[in-house]
Fold this sequence. Notes:
The protein has two domains: about 20-165, Roll (Nuclear Transport Factor 2, Chain: A); about 175-305, Nuclear Transport Factor 2, Chain: A, CATH 3.10.450.50. The model has no long low-confidence stretch (mean pLDDT about 90). The protein is of the alpha+beta class. The longest helix has 17 residues, at about 1-20. The N and C termini lie far apart (about 70 Å). It has eight helices and 16 strands. It has helices at about 1-20, 30-45, 50-55, 75-90, 160-165, 185-195, 200-205, 225-235, and strands at about 25, 55-65, 75, 90-95, 105-110, 110-125, 130-140, 150-155, 175-180, 205-215, 220-225, 240-245, 250-255, 260-270, 280-290, 295-300. Strands 1, 2, 3, 4, 5, 6, 7 and 8 form an eight-stranded mixed beta sheet that branches. Strands 9, 10, 11, 12, 13, 14, 15 and 16 form an eight-stranded mixed beta sheet that branches.
Amino acid sequence: MKKLTFILVALITFSMSAQKKKNGVVYDKHPGILLIEAFNKAYVDADVEKLSSMMDDDFKAYNALSSNKDQKGTPKNNFIGQSKWWNTNVDYFKITQDKPAYPDAIEYKGDQTWVQTWERIYGVHKQTGVEFDMPVHRLYRLNKDATKIISVMDYSDSSNYMRAWDAWPGNDRKNGEIYINHENINTVRKLMYAFLNNDGEKAYSYFDENAVIEDINEPETLTLEQGKERDKVIFSDWTLDALDESGYPDYLEYDWRESKVVQSWWNMRMTNNKTAKKIVLKVLFMDDFNDDGKITKRYMYYNGSLLK
């Protein structure tokens, strides 16, 4: 039996080793890594001469996430132009290592050297105030002696670029309509006054069964059931004496993502059941609605320290 076990282990070990084939060496310290660090600094500084000296004449940058099968890539001069744009149009521009990741240099068989990096691009667009704060993964192909960059494969999120474009001065556009009277506003009023009259069952009936609650005073998002338990604790310590609408609610029906939101401001007049202390708790509610008129998410903003 022992002999059979030994043979099986030997066969498995041989099988696993037979599936491996070395195709190069990975380095955490390499002249190519130093080249990319200098390249990024020159890119941030828009040091055109230095950038050009580190790029092959046939340099191309590719959007690795593009589905365009005929992608030609960004040539050297255009890539340098992008550096100028960032330097001119973005405040606080920087490219940093996205820790805890670190760059690797890989020397493949067949005289191919690549450097892969995990970085973070940061800056604030001067014209629109849009913040760029995005991770980017890049693969740099280098020449044989690691002194020139031949190509770059860029994996990054382009949504920030679109936000900056949408916010560009002159691109003003509407994003839906605001209502001063609407059935969803009526729903919020009904549930608030149900709470005032100790009718929790009716109040919670206006929520979708899978609704969640974001309370600025809670470290995590609450499910509807967790919200009910939290409310039991609050109303065991405090009595809600009166409710005053502060100003008036707005119902916002957005075009973007077809969001439906009621925002309302309330003065909740409360008395502590033990000390008889009276407070006015000012609360902002933002309630997301679905197409069935049910609340799917409630945001709550108030000073929770007043309830302690």
